[in-house]
Amino acid sequence: MSAVTAPTRPGPLAFLNVRHHRAALNAFMFVVVAHWAEHLVQAYQIYVQGRPRPQARGVLGQFYPWLVTSEWLHYGYAIVMLVGLFLLLPGFVGRARTWWTIALVIQFWHHIEHLLLLIQAQAGTTFFGAAVPTSVLQLVMPRVELHLFYNSVVFIPMVIAVYLHLRPNRREAEAMTCSCRPQVAVPAASPA
């Protein structure tokens, strides 16, 4: 499949990536932005408000503290992100597809990190000689900062992809089959 081709097969992926791509993309990006905002609020609570890390729970965690400590919830979100990026990929073409794929690859690794945390939490044992469940990059960066970093490095290429997807060049616009495709004015017929 070339860099500017789009899905042509009928089925659920075509349904999602042709007729309802804009709506699905909007819903997915809303979830992503809300999650990223939670991480930003948590960092604000630590670095600006001076809260101890266990009390820096974001917005929802203030009302539902178990959300912050639930490895199942964090892993579930990592899977939702991975699946969303994968399912929406066929709707992208050209440069936007490249950036969306970068986000997908980074999220795949992020998902592996959460899987390691989940396995440790469920097994009641830890890796790397750590006192608490620990992911690979958590060995060099604290967890709050690491997950803010992960969500940022997935979010940034997603934003670039969406920007390019909604502002395609002529070649990309011609290859697009999704509901995000810009409407091209049809030239008026010459008088007979």
Present the secondary structure layout.
Elements (H helix, E strand, L loop, with lengths): L11 H8 L1 H27 L12 H4 L2 H4 L1 H18 L5 H30 L19 H24 L3 H6 L17
Count of all domains: 1
Structural class assignment: mainly alpha
Helix content: 55-70%
Largest sheet: none
The number of helical runs is 8
Q: How far do the termini sit from each other?
A: 42 Å
Strand content: under 5%
Radius of gyration computed on alpha carbons: 20 Å
Average pLDDT taken over every residue: 87
Question: SSE order, as H and E?
Answer: HHHHHHHH
Total E-strand runs: 0
Question: Low-confidence parts lasting 5 or more residues at pLDDT below 50?
Answer: none
Keywords: Membrane, Transmembrane, Transmembrane helix
Keywords:
192 residues, mainly alpha, membrane, transmembrane helix, transmembrane
Describe the protein in words:
The chain crosses the membrane at residues 72-94, 115-136, 148-166. Keywords: Membrane, Transmembrane, Transmembrane helix. The protein contains eight helices and no strands. The chain has 192 residues and is mainly α. Helix 2 packs antiparallel against helix 7 (143-166). The model has no long low-confidence stretch (mean pLDDT 87).
